[in-house]
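pls design
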């Protein structure tokens, strides 16, 4: 992905000066950085699991990973690695589609709109992934005890690399504000003349106002359903945007 972006930049010098194209490049940069952050957490988690499997405690000896509290601490991190990896892959697919629009004559308006959407998605995702990864890496380091702070464990090096990846393309709070500004702008459009265009990409913003009762209070048995979780997130997003 990095080599592809560099080739595209050198092949199109105008990308360094054209605002929409520069925004497109920043989207591609965030796609790469997201993959880098996920890789950092993945490597640290592998180190942690291997160490906890090899280290024993008690009589008779038991691996540290066999203790329930270790599994309870690390399982959400493992699930988060898969979730963020799939999200980064989806962003990569959207990035490739955006390149096709860029190379198609007469698609300037569509390119600008898709670039704005990708920029907003990348901003929100990068902010959340950065915060999640920071907490996950610290949890992994503490799970290793004193070994996690030793250079030979590899964890300090991974955390140093993470610092570079998470700051590239914008810090968490800054990109989160960019994402929030985009959502507010789209919500205002949904309440005005641009309702149809907003409904195509963000139907939950163009939908009627959410009810006073949150969805999870209506049927808590569906919380484990991924589609229902998406409905919850959309409800909370719409509620927060309306209050802003």
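designed seq:
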């Amino acid at each position: 992905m990095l080599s592809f972006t560099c080739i595209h930049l050198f092949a199109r010098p105008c990308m360094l000066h054209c605002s929409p194209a520069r925004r497109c490049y920043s989207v591609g940069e965030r796609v790469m950085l997201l993959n880098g952050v996920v890789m950092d957490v993945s490597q640290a988690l592998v180190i942690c699991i291997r160490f906890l499997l090899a280290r024993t405690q008690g009589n008779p000896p038991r691996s540290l990973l066999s203790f329930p509290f270790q599994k309870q601490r690390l399982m959400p991190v493992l699930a988060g690695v898969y979730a963020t990896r799939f999200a980064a892959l989806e962003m990569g697919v959207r990035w490739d589609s955006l390149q096709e629009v860029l190379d198609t004559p007469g698609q300037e308006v569509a390119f600008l709109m898709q670039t704005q959407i990708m920029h907003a998605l990348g901003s929100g995702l990068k902010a959340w992934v950065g915060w999640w990864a920071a907490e996950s890496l610290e949890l992994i380091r503490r799970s290793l005890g004193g070994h996690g702070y030793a250079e030979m464990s590899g964890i300090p090096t991974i955390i140093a690399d993470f610092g570079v990846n998470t700051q590239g393309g914008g810090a968490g709070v800054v990109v989160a504000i960019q994402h929030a500004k985009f959502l507010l702008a789209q919500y205002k459009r949904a309440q005005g003349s641009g309702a149809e265009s907003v409904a195509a990409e963000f139907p939950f913003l163009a939908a009627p106002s959410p009810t006073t009762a949150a969805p999870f209070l209506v049927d808590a048995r569906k919380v484990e359903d991924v589609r229902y979780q998406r409905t919850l997130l959309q409800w909370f997003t719409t509620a927060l945007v309306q209050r802003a």
